[in-house]
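Dear U.,

For the methods section draft, I wanted the exact inputs and outputs in one place so we can describe them consistently. I've listed the two proteins in the order they'll appear in the manuscript figures. Please don't edit the C-alpha cell lines directly; just add comments below if something needs changing.

First protein:
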Amino acid sequence: MIEAGIDCLQVIEIKAGMDLLKLHRLYGDQIAFMGGLDVRTLCGNDRAAIDRELEAKIPVVKNGFGFVLHSDHSIPKTVSYDTCRYFIQKGLELGRYE
C-alpha cells in the first residue's frame, strides 16, 4: 500500500484483530492512520474507559506521519451525544502539540 502511494490507512478495526499501536510502530514513519480507537469503549458511555483507551494510544500515534482521531467503526446510537463530545475533546486535548 505504501509503495502504491497510499498515505493514510483508515480501516483499523480492533474486533478484526488490527492493532493501531503495532501498525504505528511498524509503519508510522511512512503512512498516516485514521481510527483504531475501540468503539466498544464508547458504547458504555464510561468516561474513565474512554480516557484509558485514548491515553494508551493518542500520545504514541500523534507522532510520526500523522493520525486522524476516529473510532475503529461506526458509532452506534447507544452512544450519547455527550459521550461523543467528550471523546473528541479528550482526543484533541491528548493530541495537541505543545
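Second protein (the one for the lower panel):
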Amino acid sequence: MCGRFITTGTWAEYRQYMNILPPEVDTRNGPQPNYNTAPTSELEIVTSHDGEIDIEAVRWGLMPHWAKDTKVRAMINARGETVAEKPFFRTAFEYGRCLIPATGYYEWRTENKVKQPYLIHLPGDAPTFEPYAMAGIMSYNKILGTRTFAIVTLAADQSVADIHNRMPVILNSDALAAWVNSDTSKDDALELLQENRGADLVYYPVSKDVGSVKNKGPELIEKASNSEK
C-alpha cells in the first residue's frame, strides 16, 4: 500500500517528468512542500476533462460516486489487479484516471519487533529526488459534494519487496497521456499499469517521527543511519 508520501518538487520540475502539462505551469506557485502527506490531505493533482489537462485540489481517500453519506469508508489505495472490476473503484477507473505528483513515499518494516520507516524514491540526493507521477483514480460525489482520489498499487517490484509487498504505480513518462485520456480503453489502461518504474526505486531508513502526522518538516527525510540500499 501507500499511506504516506512526500511532495518536494515545483510544478516546473514536475513538468520535466509530466510532459503533458502545459508550459504555463512553470510559473504556477506550489505545490507546497510536504514531507509527510497523509490520508484526508487535500492535494493538487493532475486531471483531464474533455482532453484538457488541469490541476485540481482533491482530497486523498476515495469515496465512490454512489456513496450517500460518510459512513462509507474512504479508500486511499486501489489494487491494480482488481481496480477495473470492483464496484467501489470501477467508475473512477474508467472515467477519473489522474496523476499524483510526488518525490518519494514511506513504508514500514518490522525489525527486531520495532517498525522502522523507510523513504522510497527514484535515484537522486535529498531533497531533490527525481519527481514522478503515481497512477491515481478520482471520484466526484455529487451527493457529498466531494472530489476524492486513491492511489493505484501493484505487487512490489523486487527492488522494494523486502520493505513491503505492495507499491504505488509510478508511471513511465510516456504512459501519462494515455492514462489520463478517457478514450483509452479499460484493457489498455490496465496494460499501462505495467509501464512503471518500480525497478528504479531505492530506499533508506528515516526517523520514526514520520509516524506522527503532526510532523511535517524536512528533517523527516534525513537518513536515520548509514545503511542504504
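Candidate sentences for the figure legend, describing the second protein: The helical segments are 11-17, 90-95, 176-180, 186-192. The mean pLDDT is 94.

Thanks,
Y.
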